[in-house]
Write a structure and sequence with these properties.
By secondary structure, the chain is mainly beta. Helices cover 10% and strands 52% of the residues. The protein has helices at residues 6-16, 94-97, 103-106; strands at 19-29, 35-46, 50-57, 61-66, 69-74, 79-84, 107-115, 118-125, 132-140, 143-151, 156-166, 184-187. A twelve-stranded mixed beta sheet has the order 7-8-9-10-11-1-2-3-4-5-6-12. It is globular.
């Protein structure tokens, strides 16, 4: 039997990962190649359309989608921004994994081969106004291991996933967001 291509591995992963929980570490690299911002936390996914990023370090932040809206909550600023899910497509790579986005319809998919034991797939948006140039998805076998988002300003966001668990029963309250009392809420119509 022929070895599966990275694209086939991505399809396998998306087909089986109806729920996912993983720890993540993230680094933002500026247009000059310097690491600017490091953060870490826990990521939850429930397909279709529901996800949650709980940033723990260095700042507490939550990004929560219930399938219709995406809520961005900055704990320190006491500020919440809510966007319709389709308007937020460029703002979070979790949408690529959420089942809300048809990969072939919205992206040109390129097999990037293997590097350091990971299989890499590059997704290039077909839409000019996507907010990012490309996303690389790294798989360890058929399991999500990393993502790299290149935006239109030359900035790169790298996310590494560890402790990935799929097929869990996740509490649906993870994907419900209620702004805490006293925070400023900005809702895009």
């Amino acid at each position: 039997m022929a070895e599966e291509t990275p694209v086939q591995r991505l399809r396998n992963f998306l087909a089986k990962a109806n729920t996912l929980q993983a720890e993540f570490s993230q680094v933002v690299i500026d247009e000059f190649g310097s690491p600017r911002q490091r953060s870490s936390g826990v990521f939850y996914l429930q397909r279709p359309g529901k996800f949650r990023w709980d940033y723990k370090k260095p700042y507490s932040q939550e990004i929560v989608s219930n399938g219709g809206k995406v809520w961005f909550y900055d704990v320190d600023l006491e500020q919440v921004t809510a966007k319709r899910l389709d308007d937020a497509i460029g703002s979070t790579p979790a949408l690529l994994l959420s089942g809300e986005v048809a990969l072939e319809t919205n992206f040109k998919i390129e097999d990037q081969g293997t590097d350091e034991g990971l299989f890499w797939i590059k997704l290039v948006p077909k839409s000019e106004d996507s907010g990012f140039k490309s996303v690389l998805i790294g798989l360890d076998g058929d399991t999500l291991a990393g993502m790299e988002l290149s935006d239109n300003f030359g900035q790169v966001t790298r996310i590494y996933f560890t402790g990935v668990k799929t097929g869990l029963r996740l509490n649906r309250e993870l994907f419900e967001f209620r702004p805490p009392p006293g925070v400023d809420v900005f809702e895009e119509k």
